[in-house]
Amino acid sequence: MAVLSRDLLLALRRRSEVVNPLLFFVIVVTLFPLAISPSQAVLQTLAPGIIWVAALLSTLLSLERMFRSDFEDGSLEQLLLSPCPPTILVLAKVLAHWLVSGLPLLLIAPLLGVFLALPTEAMPTLLITLALGTPVLSMVGAIGVALTVGLRRGGALLSLLVLPLYLPVLIFAANAVAAAADGLIVTGQLYFLGGLLLLSCSLAPLAAAAALKISIH
Amino acid sequence: MLRAVDLGCERGDRILFSGLNLHLHAGEVLQVHGANGCGKTTLLRALCGLTRPATGEILWQEKDIRDDESTFSDDVIHIGHHDGIKQELSALENLRFAVALSAKSPELSAEQALAHFGLTAQTHLPAYVLSAGQRRRVALARLLLNAARLWVLDEPFTALDQSSIGVMEAMLHQHASNGGCVVITSHHAIPLEPGIHRELHLTT
Amino acid sequence: MDNLAEFFHMGGYAFYVWGSYGLAAVMLSYNIIGPLWRLRGLQRRLSLRPANSPGVSKP
Amino acid sequence: MWYWLHRFSSPAYFYRFAGKATPWLAAITGLLLLAGLYGGLVLAPADYQQGDSYRIIFIHVPSAWMSLFIYVVMAAAGGIGLIWHIKLAEVVAACSAPIGASFTFIALATGSLWGKPMWGTWWVWDARLTSELILLFLYFGVIALQSAGEDKRTASRASAILALVGMINIPIIHFSVEWWNTLHQGATVSKMGAPSIHTSMLVPLLIMALACKFYYATSLLMRARAELLEREHNSNWIRDALKNHG
């Protein structure tokens, strides 16, 4: 798929834009032990929430990249005028965004888990929730970016639009990790996250494509 | 081939134009004139389906362009104020991506298209080192790549040097004699025979 | 009069009960008065303009 | 039916109709409010557990109902406007958002005012209050998006999409919050102690709910008229309408 490979190539050429949200993720997480307490017991209870909130925020930072520069240099219009259906286009863009910003979170999260004294039993669950949850964040975020890309002050608005929609992912993912740390079974939460992923994959591209058409008006 | 019926567009709460009818046949070049801000760009964007007009409809080969989007988008190329060139990609990569997006196979290779605009030396340079005029030429080279029959060009001569303007004018001529259609805005007088050259004046 | 005082006292919960209703009254009347003013203002401005003016500037 | 719908959705007709209907709706709202408040604040007996503080229910619960109801109306109107390009539907959606946000805010504030005497704190992370708070954020998003664009119609269409996305999300958010709340039950006080509903309480509650519906209709029509004037100030029907107005 041409759009996917182009976006990946662009990400490769603009490495700092890819690395910055990731560094942000790491730095936010390290703030918490300093701000609250380095005690293992405290960190352990907070770890799932901290990691997930930080993941949410760093996704938010990288979201704009999905359509903003394409909008500004006119290539978004070209993309929408191409024979390729806009939903497929959005899917390709979201996939590229996730590969560049969601997947690295997944790779770096175990390290942060160690920082925050997350028990080893909870690590697989942390990874699974990130694997299921971060694509949802990219999907839902795509709608938000598509809606705000035509606005001059889109950035702050984006977080207002998108964060409330992220709530279910946050609740279930952070909870699953916490429950796994307590040695509980978390299949229910994981199924729910999987359901959210399916739902967002089927509906978000439609909404984002419609939003893009309105934004380039 | 291209027909607009009772077309009207608004920008914000301002009516730019309304009740506009036009009919463009194969082999004709329509040059749109008008003062700044009178809606030339909006008209062009409406004609290629980017902006939804407030009233009226646009027909391509007697079919509403919204009903049959994928066929129409195969037939149209729009080059607007922004070049749609990615700064980080080379001239060649930019063109190759444009080819990959279109459903038809190109008549010329991307390298040949660049050579046509005298950009052979810049083929592999990233677009951010190119000058504005060179970037414009890369964008215009897209016209050679897919056999779109309708060209919608918004100020294509901006930033071009004299020889590139000549190349572009020859391309317009060639396209019209091959039975293509062009809608163009330009403040520059385009030397074309009166038979194929039509003009539209938008007034506020 | 005793009855009325008792009514306003609300069994010791006066602040909470009247606070709730007061707040609701303020919010809800704002939602009536605000649009009313806007409507009157617009009607005045639009009917004052000359017959052929293209429009009014936005507020 | 279609003819009637078409006629009704024409801005000129709607403007005139709304102008005539507003005073009537306002009068009905006023009467219902008086009846509901009298029934709720005077006639209904004090609750044996909560005393008089439970009387907040007569504004809190109808507001909470309205907050959801208006969101649904807003999303539906937005969807209709998006699909059939009916200007009036866009206007209805745009005008519903601030009213809905007001009701959501009232539900939150009165919930908090009720919570203080009941739970001893102004705020608890109770499932209903939390959902209501998220709903308020969703409303803020819609309102912010509406006011951000330069072109009103584009902004309406964008916020309609957002409202529809929010509509799909509300049940999911609600379910998540409920589920999250049951997990942390120990941390919060028991749910808002709904007093065993007696007829003397139920009747004023329903009257108040109806009053809020009529209030919404009144406020919506007034807002919609103003919005139509602003959006369409170039059209001929406005000149005619204003001429008749005097």
What does this structure look like?
The complex is a heterotetramer of chains A (217), B (204), C (59) and D (246). In chain A, 84% of the residues lie in helices and 0% in strands. By secondary structure, chain A is mainly α. Chain A has one domain (2-215). The two termini of chain A are 26 Å apart. The model of chain A has no long low-confidence stretch (mean pLDDT 91). Chain B has six helices and nine strands; from the N terminus they run βββαββαβαααβαββ. In chain B, the strands form two sheets. A five-stranded parallel beta sheet of chain B has the order 6-7-8-3-9, with helices on both faces. In chain B, helix 4 (110-116) crosses helix 5. The longest helix of chain B is centred in the C-terminal third of the chain and has 16 residues, at 162-177. Chain B is globular. By secondary structure, chain C is an all-alpha fold. Chain C has one domain (2-47). Mean pLDDT of chain C is 77; it is low at 52-59. Chain D has 246 residues and is mainly α. Chain D has a domain at 55-188. Chain D is 80% helix and 0% strand. In chain D, helix 5 (127-148) runs antiparallel to helix 6. Residues 186-193 of chain D have low confidence and may be disordered. Chains C and D meet through helix 2 of C and helix 2, helix 3, helix 4, helix 7 and helix 8 of D.
> What structural category characterises the helix and strand content of chain B?
alpha/beta
Radius of gyration of chain A: 18 Å
Strand content of chain A: under 5%
The rough form of chain A would be described as elongated
Gap between N and C termini of chain A, in Å?
A: 26 Å
Which percent band covers the strand fraction of chain B? 25-35%
By DSSP (H or I, 4+ residues per run), the number of helices of chain A equals 9
Largest sheet descriptor of chain B: 5 strands, parallel
**Estimated structural class of chain A:** mainly alpha
The parts of chain A where pLDDT drops under 50 for at least 5 residues are: none
What would CATH call the homologous superfamily of chain B?
P-loop containing nucleotide triphosphate hydrolases
Number of domains of chain A: 1
Strand tally of chain B is: 9
In whole angstroms, the N-to-C terminal distance of chain B is 27 Å
Radius of gyration of chain B, rounded? 17 Å
- Helix amount of chain B, in percent? 25-40%
How many distinct folded domains of chain B?
A: 1
* Largest protein-protein interface: C-D, 30 and 40 residues
Question: Helical residue percent of chain A?
Answer: over 70%
Assembly context of the chains: heterotetramer
